[in-house]
What we know:
alpha+beta
Amino acid sequence: MVRTLNPFASRQALANSSYGRWSDGQLLLGDGGSPTRMAEDVHAALRAVLHDPDFPCIGAKSVVNQSSYRFGLYPEMGSPSATAGLALDLFRFSEERPRIEGDFTSFIASFLAPKLRSARTFEDLLWRQLSALHELDREHFDWNPQVAADPTDPAFSFSFAGGAYFVVGLSPASRRWARRFPWPTLVFNDHFQFERLREAQQFDRIRDAIRERDSRLHGSANPMLTDYGAHSEARQYSGRNVNGDWRCPVHFE
């Protein structure tokens, strides 16, 4: 098998890379090294949350049960070092994703800082991190032509390394338990797996099951879980409850 040269492999990126997979009951790094104790602890905490019987997202539970995800822990969210390491690893995931077995695939990036207290601050930081990733990505790749680059467009999805991702943010400042996690976290979900669900006529069933589970957990369904394709998915990324006047704080050219 011929491996594609990773265009994001700078010295800073290699120093902050943390590409891990769960195998035989342990977190293994893709380069054969050992994860830090902190990476193991954050990863274990994340698995515990997703294994909780009441966690509403069926897709998230599936990636954990089938080990069809990859995980990385990075320095402060939005920082140059975190961006460099994440770009390197997200490209590795895009290369490996077609070979990962499972109904759903995701790359999960957690960050050591900051210790957030405001959902709005997390939202701003999430978009700052995605914008920084895009600034690196645009030097090597065009935006995926099957999705829109305009966050107001219902066809919007975040593009990186030619792929498209529905991004889910987890934050210690989230009001909803299903979006709450002590370390700021971004989950990069393959956008086209949702298209495949639609084609297989499974999307509505899974969506309704998630809404029912979310209602049981929180007393009501998440108002941000709009029908897929009806509004821009950008409104859902941070998990903050926003109104119809919300505008994405960044633009992608």
